[in-house]
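HUMAN: Would you supply a protein with fold tokens?

ASSISTANT:
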Amino acid sequence: MSAQEFLVVDRLSRDFGGQRAVAEVSFTLPEGALTALIGPNGAGKTTLFNLVAGALPPTSGAVRFRGQPVLEAAQATRLGVARTFQNIRLFPGLSVLENVLAAMGGHSFWQGSFRLPRRLEEERLRLKRAHYLLEDLGLAHLGEQPARTIPFGQQRLLEIARALALQPRLLLLDEPAAGLNRTETAALAELIRRLHGRGLSLLLVEHDMHLVMHLASRVIVLEQGRIIADGTPAEVQCDERVRTAYLGPPAE
């Protein structure tokens, strides 16, 4: 597998009834990329995320990750793809720590009831890793609180912690700054830079253009399910098609 074949999206299309949400989309991402996917509402960004994550089957085309075809969500997770959601999906009644542990998976009741030394050691390591994730994302002090009771911005961080608990090679972030204030968005940007600096590959959908243009080294622009631009932030901001479809005229 070459560096350019880390993620391959090959002529990918998805129809819903008579509506084509994603149309013949092709691109590759090398390992270590930090790429943004932008476009107006209804452009097909979340549908494309669902296809890459295996949550939707394509109408035509294919997704390959690390040389393997992505056929379903569980398989994508095993290959090393994790994602967050535009609308937060936590277990609201579980504690912050339990949400992270749930993402890691665990043992059945019968496996756990025997309390074998190997099982106890595995459980100790799971707890250690969960605590580390919460500390790394600044959530350790909230570990015992129910997820529904923590502030919205910290729920966003908890969802990222749950995705990181899967130990992904590629993290898909679907509008991670939605609903955040300026201070929270700045902290999110710093977190994304830190994760990328550790070697994690990231693909994010985001409407906050300040965040996108200061984080991503590459920006892919969708309109009506098709790629209309693909380049550096500077190149995309100067593209007339992108300004017409999404960004609007440059500021005076």
Q: What stands out?
A: The beta strands are 7-16, 19-29, 34-38, 60-65, 68-69, 81-83, 170-174, 201-205, 218-223, 226-231. The chain is about 40% helix and 25% strand. The CA atoms of residues 40 and 246 lie 6 Å apart. Residues 107-111 have pLDDT under 50 and may be disordered.
